[in-house]
Queue: 4 jobs
Job 1
Amino acid sequence: MTSKDGKLKVVGIGGTLREGSSSLGALRRALGAARDSGAEAELLDLKELDLPMYEPGRPLEGYGEGVGRLVEAMRGADALILSTAAYHGTLAGITKNALDFAQFLGGDERPYFDGKVVGLISTAGGEMAGSNANGAMVHVVHALRGTVAPLMVSVPRAWKFSDGDGNITDDGYGEKLEGLGRLVVDLASRLTPEEDRVLRASA
Ligand SMILES: Cc1cc2nc3c(=O)[nH]c(=O)nc-3n(C[C@H](O)[C@H](O)[C@H](O)COP(=O)(O)O)c2cc1C
């Protein structure tokens, strides 16, 4: 939900278990631009959250702190940015497992990602899998009733375009990621009327 000072809240979810994850670095870059555009940005590093596998029927309280944090952040977001590594031609399992926890939002007044803008990022070792991964995430976001931002960023040959900490070092891809961060804030501000933001912020 919109932060206390009425700013839009953008939640970024991503990264892998690999030290120096490029998908996490790409997400940092996009979220930084979202923050520069006036949004409050929260980064959820999937390595840090250390999520167990989603288990149908297990209550939320039965999971650890990481799952609770993830679900609350997804619920409170005005917009999201998802960033995955491409594994075996599609999105990595760690990303899909995190998204499966959106099931806990299914009974909300505003279910799943209903009406929320979602930006998509992938990084890959080769040329093709990143686009496939983003394409697969489009289906997931649509199933969750979200609105996919019409610019998706796929960073191919990420080993070449990132440093040891996962930061994207290529100017062209860096600018695309920043453009996505700005676009998500712009679209979310149009989908979340000012009156709603002020009302929610003062609630
Ligand atoms: C298990 C595994 C499967 C992968 N499969 C593909 C693939 O099908 N296509 C591809 O281009 N890169 C593939 N890669 C490379 C990763 O997409 C690439 O290293 C990516 O940047 C990793 O993201 P990270 O830096 O966030 O860990 C694979 C890597 C791993 C570990």
Job 2
Amino acid sequence: MTAEQTGSGPSAATGEPLVVLDGVQKWYGDLHVLQDINLTVHRGEVVVVIGPSGSGKSTLCRAINRLETIDEGTISLDGQPLPAEGKALASLRAEVGMVFQSFNLFAHKTILENVTLGPIKVRGVKKAEADQHAMELLERVGVAHQAEKYPAQLSGGQQQRVAIARALAMEPKVMLFDEPTSALDPEMIKEVLDVMVDLAKRGMTMVVVTHEMGFARTAADRVVFMSDGAIVEENTPEEFFTNPSSERAQDFLSKILKH
Ligand SMILES: Nc1ncnc2c1ncn2[C@@H]1O[C@H](COP(=O)(O)OP(=O)(O)OP(=O)(O)O)[C@@H](O)[C@H]1O
Ligand SMILES: [Mg+2]
């Protein structure tokens, strides 16, 4: 089932803090890639992160998922600070779903197996139960009829919807999306965004790096604009796109609106 982009507006973000970044700093050598990042994402909230190439958006996502370490500050998920390593990290990582630009599906596993692998291996779910849940998710993202195929037999848009189903199968508390549609042909972008809008409407907490303004306006509660490793501006989508307050955001928007 996919949702229409009706422009009905974001759901009210009334939940308690779920992801909290407090004074996060990170350097790559001399490059100060995350500069004193303070960001709270509430349960049920959809935050769109936007900004020029190299501004640190992917690094921010990867830090939240602990794929990257940070040098200073803290990141906590549902009240728990991110553990540095070990079993606690693995279980916490399972609570964060991540969808990247490239689909990263396992080429030699079927679509169904791609979705059930995590629940069976990491969560210890029984195969029959994992299969049933996976089929429900594949149904939801509109690719259930492809369950027995292999990733290469699917279009990019279909593969990305499978990647979303695979992340959801772990029942994450928050979903991170890093430019999930930027590698797709234009006609496939909408089918993926529809799935994401549907997810947002169902109350999923989401951090989405994207330049898709239609999605931001439809689904985001808040837009965070990053530049040179810092959060320069935070605003409602409406306000951000029509009346950005910082010069850097104005400059960035004038560029992406032109093409
Ligand atoms: N492993 C790394 N080692 C050194 N520098 C890195 C590494 N990863 C990223 N960087 C640098 O950190 C900066 C931020 O990169 P990041 O990928 O977070 O940007 P981004 O905002 O996601 O950009 P894009 O829109 O192009 O995806 C860039 O200058 C990049 O070159
Ligand atoms: Mg990036």
Job 3
Amino acid sequence: MFRCFFAVTLIACSLAAIVPDATETEEFKQWSGRIVGGHEATPGQFPYQASMRSAANAHFCGGSIINRRWVVCAAHCTNNRLLANTMVVVGAHHRVTGGTTHSVERIVNHPNFSQISLANDISMVRSATDFVESASVRFIQLEPNFIITGFPATSSGWGQTTNPGSAAENLQFLHVEVITNEECRSRLTLTNAARIGDTTICVSSPDGQGLCMGDSGGPLTYGGRLIGAVSWGVPCGTAAPDMFARISAVHGCLAATVPDATETEEFKQWSGRIVGGNTATPGQFPYQASMRNAANSHFCGGSLINRRWVVCASHCTVNRLLANTIIVVGAHHRVTGGITHPVERIVNHPNYSSITLANDVSLVRSATDFIESETVGFIQLEPNFIITGFPATSSGWGQTTNPGSAAEILQFLNVEVITNEECRSRLTLTNAARIGETTICVSSPNGQGLCMGDSGGPLTYGGRLIGAVSWGVPCGTAAPDMFGRISAVHAWLVSVIDV
Ligand SMILES: *[C@@H]1O[C@H](CO)[C@@H](O)[C@H](O)[C@H]1NC(C)=O
Ligand SMILES: *[C@@H]1O[C@H](CO)[C@@H](O)[C@H](O)[C@H]1NC(C)=O
């Protein structure tokens, strides 16, 4: 697993600096290097423990020795570090004296390390000389499995030297409990909870002590294997968990999370903008639904998939009252015409995230049957993963959050489905981090209509529904538009629809 990780990381290892950097926050700085409630280790108790030092022998981070040349560390420790100013000390008990010093010949930061979310906060440091095993120098195996919970896990370290007065002289350790990521999120602020992804593993001290055992880059072990590298935490005494990079996940996919996407200015500006679309003819999109409030005000689009169910976007229907939701089918105009149906059930995807907009698909059940006609028809769900394709078609009226710019008559746009990789490459790092398996991106091939937006509405390809309009970035930036990917939630859709 790590051989593969190296191969990838050697090619691309530097990340451009970006927006709100977690490592720049006061919270993060306060946490760094605090050690509370730890026990002093006996010499040789943690032979895999490494001390990362500057050329002046100042300890700056911990590390774990995994074989005769490599140390696992945290990317936030080694990002932008010069080889000439980095050494590895092994077999040490004291933070300043003793141990064997090795110079460093290579630093490989995880290519998907994010300073924003601290996802993939892992790095590898290669010694220029072999570590020689002894009573105080040994290697620790990597844990390939996803550890959900566990006790006791053990973390050790000296604390960072950014606050030298409080750093430990002798190696300290602490037994901690691995908690689920769900529990972890529930014990953090929303901003911090958003940083807990698949590449994070959280621990809690079961007795309420030592909650800020921190020695960045250092080991977290469980069952004799390395399961984490110390990543970040929040200030001591708040009963909050501490976060480690999850060893089993370092080769997994990007699971970055950032503050709630639906709250950003970008998202709000995008909502409901329709540019460069064409006016539909009546009945051209018989599966198009208009989701309205009780006052007949259109708030989102939808797609009719059978005589009772409409596919919509979770961000449209989350927290919506049934009594304030109606479905209008067979409409051409945004306000007049069509047939109105009351709603009897709204089912949001259980894994919808307003943070990442993953699984942004929902189902709305009409209380009465939709009657097929010239202007009312159903569209089939696409069960297959569409990688690329042209033309795909999206239609809608635009949201009424900005009524002046909403279309009176249904609009449509032919767009091109692009790969998720291309999509990421055309977005800012923050937005790229939101493109996952449950997203499908489109681009307008001629540079127009890039912000065709009518949340919840259809994206079709080859006569089937492949997406529900989810989100985008403001118009004119040549950025793609994002949809909830139907094939990714197909099994769920089928399990819910019952007609
Ligand atoms: C980094 O992210 C990209 C895009 O998600 C992915 O293809 C690649 O495998 C990731 N790299 C590693 C080493 O996980
Ligand atoms: C939601 O996520 C959980 C945990 O990953 C998974 O077990 C479950 O199948 C998901 N539910 C759906 C409907 O995809």
Job 4
Amino acid sequence: MDYLPLFVELKNRPVLLVGGGDIAARKASLLLRAGAELTVVSPTLCSELQQCYSQQKLIWVAKEYYPQLLDNVFLVIAATNSDKLNERIFQDANQRQKLVNVVDDQPRCSFIFPSIIDRSPVVVAISSAGKAPVLVRLLREKLEALLPSSLGKMATIAGRWRNKVKHNLHTMTERRRFWEKSFNGRFASLVANGKIIEAESQLELQLKQQDSAGELTLVGAGPGDPGLLTLKGLQVLQNADVVLYDYLVSDEILDLVRRDADKICVGKRAGLHSVSQEQTNLLIVQLAQQGKKVVRLKGGDPFIFGRGGEELQVAAEANIPFQVVPGITAAIGATAYAGIPLTHREYSQSVTFITGHCRENGADLDWPALAKGHQTLAIYMGTVKSAFISQQLIKYGRDAQTPVAVIGCGTRHNQQVITGTLGELESLAQQAPTPALLVIGEVTALHHQIGWFGQSATAETLRSAVLELA
Ligand SMILES: C[S@@+](CC[C@H](N)C(=O)[O-])C[C@H]1O[C@@H](n2cnc3c(N)ncnc32)[C@H](O)[C@@H]1O
């Protein structure tokens, strides 16, 4: 090991920082966060340090460095732009057995600053002993994404409860189990949702061993690109006992589920093995009642044509605690990747999300309102009824020449955007890969100018491709 990691208490300890520029300011801010009694030595100060000085957060020695300044300090940091001066500070500090760090100059450091993830009181420090700083940065980004921002709050509450738990649970094993269950379970979710009083009641219940409830989390997986899953969604997936997922959830997202979790497909698809909504509801209740953390993972957003509301109603009736992590719905994700802004100052002042699963006579949709111009229609599950949809809109006044786009497999590597007119909607929809979203309105023409992802086609190019094949 090149360096021994230590966490040093700096509160009210004298620390010397030599240098008054931006780099010194970055170190100053870190040292002040740790409560150091900071003295900055430099003839001038940058504006940030100036501000700290005027707020009396630090002592300023407005002179050149001299070695006696080291006499009473706990540690020293050199952040000047003079190599010679930095070397001198390093030598002086070593002579006096003081810990010294010359910024960005690892050979002249008897201690180094690790890269940190601060969820105080939990702090994660990473270092490569100065050998691979970019690798450390990448690792830090990954950990930042995995560690919920509520971690600090959770640790603070745990600190408050430590003695009480010790008093009630007499063996180390009992206490370990208690905390493992808390940090992985309902207590953690309640803290993350800002419900601190309920979180402490949960600890109380667990202490009395009266808690056996699992919980349900609805998670929106987004339209396909795993990069569109939210951070919170990822954290929940990494903590699940069992994940019930739909066909629409991409394999890349399923790969992000905790390795030991059970994954159960509860998809509904015409012609393929399907699980009915009632069976899914029953499964959710049964698994949660066994004390499991159940994640219901849905394509897009759980509340947009996803039956998420119904599943929560079932959970509420069975007294199962629940929470929702929203996702990027197909209409938002697929159009963004297709370069189709849903609203635009010139072309569209509103957008409506519609299901194409309307009744045969279409009586459940307000066609005259939907046929008005200057608006965008995003139609989910519209492929099968595309002929009927286009007839209705034209019948109630929308121009048959209105530009439309059908986005198949939006945000996925095989995304295809097929553009044409409202009159051609049926043939466009039939040629798009599924799942597909129908988008109607002038904004779809912008795809030709600002489309940036995947493949594009028009009714015409598709027609000539078919002719060529024939
Ligand atoms: C049952 S709905 C679920 C919608 C989902 N909850 C959401 O918020 O996106 C399924 C329909 O969403 C649309 N859809 C879902 N993912 C899509 C994608 N990647 N590209 C295009 N359309 C998609 C299709 O119209 C599909 O038939």
